[in-house]
Amino acid sequence: MNDEQLKLSSEVVRHGLGVVAAAGYINNEGGQAVADAVEGLFEKGCSSLLIDLDGTRIINSIGVSILLEILEKLLDSGGHLAFCSLTPTIAKTFEIMGLAEYAQVFPDRRSALEVLGVNAV
User: Fold this and answer.
1) Residue 31: inside a domain, yes or no?
2) CATH number of the domain to which 91 belongs
3) What is the DSSP letter of 2?
4) Which of 5, 19, 62, 106 lies in disulfide reach of 84, CB 3.0 to 4.6 Å?
5) What is the residue range of 83's domain?
């Protein structure tokens, strides 16, 4: 599963809004890497987050539970979480697990950033 090695980046796109882009397998290690990136954005003042899963085909149960913890932390602090670029399988998993009920889901980063108030390039 070498080709499923997680590639991760994060950035502040405007005051209060951060983006984490993850491509690869989100398991316990990958999920923790996403959580660490999110924590770094919290420390930079981001209370709204977009997690872009373009290139992510698999998220195991531990990865989903870590994403649920991120969602809970954001909701508890009055923040907002959104996801984009989900495969149909991941979208269905998020729906079943309740992530889609409390976080917005967008087809791609451009549409997510337009709705979240940032002009996408």
Assistant:
1) yes
2) 3.30.750.24
3) G
4) 106
5) 2-115
**Rg of the chain, C-alpha, whole Å:** 13
Q: Which of the 8 DSSP states describes residue 59?
A: B
Residue 87 CA, distance from chain mean position = 13
Number of independent structural domains in the chain: 1
pLDDT, tens digit, 9 for 90 and up, residues 53-87: 999 999 999 999 999 999 999 999 999 999 999 99
Q: pTM for the full model?
A: 0.91
Q: Look at residue 121 and tell me if it is in a domain.
A: no
Instruction: Give domain status of residue 63, yes or no.
Output: yes
How many CB atoms are located within 10 Å of the residue 2 CB?
4
Assigned domain for 69 exists: yes
Question: Both tokens of residue 53?
Answer: 């899963």
How far is Cα 71 from Cα 6, in angstroms, rounded to an integer?
Answer: 20
> Which residues are CB-contacts of 30 (< 8 A; sequence separation ≥ 6)?
6, 8, 22, 24, 63
